[in-house]
Amino acid sequence: MEKESIRVKKVLILAGALCAYWIGSGFATGQEVLQFLATSGAAKGLIGAIIYTILLGFFAYTLYGTGQKMQFENPYDIFVYYCGKYVGKAYVWFSVVLMYGIYVTMLAGAGATLHQYYGIASSMGTYIVALLALATAVLGVEKLIDIIGVIGPVKIVFLAIMGIAALATFAKQPNLLSANSALIATAGFKTASGNWLWSAILWAFLGLMFGITFFVISGSSCKNVKEAKLSSLIGVGGIFVAVVFVVIMEIVYLDVIRGQQVPTLAIAKHVSPILGMVFAPILTLCIYSAVSSIILVVTRNFAVDKTKKFNIVATGLTLVGMFAGTLLPFDQLVNILYPISGYIGIVLVAFMIYKEFINKNAFPYSKNNKESVENK
């Protein structure tokens, strides 16, 4: 058998695209990490980050490989593949609703970011990012991956710079991290759950629901399974680095982020006015790249990309999302939507484990007949 070759450039672009997709408004603004990890303090938050990464790595590794192997015509068929026709269809529609809800949440994050730094109306910021994302999505999935694959590493570099600044501050004040770890739980921030371990696990399951169709789409663009799985692991590794830096910086700069809708932007401005000036557009790029990906993923349930129907549906969804994103405060949207989605992901993982490790012939699937066994 011929040895599977790996295209290094493709692997790096896909890993970068995963980081860009993941570090959207919830992550890049600091609200996700704050509510799921940082409010538990440094020790528990960092252990939670490791648990989160291990679980997320398993999900991405498995789904990138399945996406490459199955080459689904519609990425939402992954739910039918793992859960069967009826439960799978229920998951398809829940996923569409969830992803669209996250899309609206990210647009709210865009508005909050642009308002906090530039002083423009939150609604105007929401509209700008929504229209830019629509323009990118209509270019198709391959062009989208190429664009956001470059943005992903840039995000991690800027988060790392702020994380290193936080470590430098900690080095000068060794008691700061432990002192703020004790204070952050009572600082009035919203939390995902009352238990630090469960918050970390719940965040990983949310990641599964948020990322499953993107994992499948990315995996299907690879030449072989080895290339797909390597891309997923490198991408998740980059996400882990970003998570660790954000946990540390939010605890070290506790006094800076109090009352802020966008904690990371407040930290950037505190570290250096120049860093804040540069980070604001980078943060907007973070949100734009994730929003572009999500609107494409959601619309793919209704139409194939780069078709007239796709463009019409994407435009309609964008117009609705633009206005819905101005209705609730950003941190409130994150606190309502994200934990619920994590619970739904737990059931899906049970189906995945059953098919991957217990009965590979469960819920037989083929492209021509989703209820029949695939001929291999």
UniProtKB/TrEMBL annotation:
InterPro entries: YkvI-like (IPR038728). The chain crosses the membrane at residues 46-64, 91-111, 117-140, 147-171, 196-218, 230-254, 274-298, 310-330, 336-354. Keywords: Membrane, Transmembrane, Transmembrane helix. This is Transporter. It comes from Clostridium aromativorans. The lineage of its organism: Bacteria, Bacillati, Bacillota, Clostridia, Eubacteriales.
